[in-house]
Amino acid sequence: MPWIALPGAMLPQSSRWHGHRDMLHDRERNSAYDRAISAAVRDISSSNRTAVDVGTGSGLLAMFAARAGASVTAFETVP
């Protein structure tokens, strides 16, 4: 299967990822999510900064949480 190169990631090129491509390239939307997740993680005491991302898809939101300092467990049912 061919792969699609994105900044910091290689994704399999399939119809499933084509729908995610527009979302991954939406800087305004992703910046808003990043700011909101970072603020939420900062509001939690450092000993409890844990996030679970069920249905993580591309994993972008899980990566935002991890970058903000949370310990993240991400699950995806569709490989």
Which structural class fits the helix and strand makeup?
A: alpha+beta
Low-confidence stretches: 1-5
Largest sheet: 2 strands, antiparallel
Strand order of the largest sheet: 1-2
Mean pLDDT across the residues is 81
What is the string of helix and strand elements? EEHHEHE
Number of strands: 4
Keywords:
79 residues; alpha+beta; two-stranded antiparallel sheet; two-stranded parallel sheet; 3 helices; 43% helix; 23% strand; flat
How would you portray this structure in words?
With 79 residues, the chain is an alpha+beta fold. 43% of the residues lie in helices and 23% in strands. It is built from three helices and four strands, in the order ββααβαβ. The strands form two sheets. The protein has a two-stranded antiparallel sheet. Strands 3-4 form a two-stranded parallel sheet. α2 packs across α3 (60-67). Residues 1-5 have low confidence and may be disordered.
Set down the secondary structure blueprint:
Blueprint: E1 3-6, E2 9-12, H1 15-24, H2 27-42, E3 50-54, H3 60-67, E4 71-75
Helix pairs in contact: 2-3
Quick gist of this model?
With 79 residues, the protein is an alpha+beta fold. Helix content is 43%, strand content 23%.
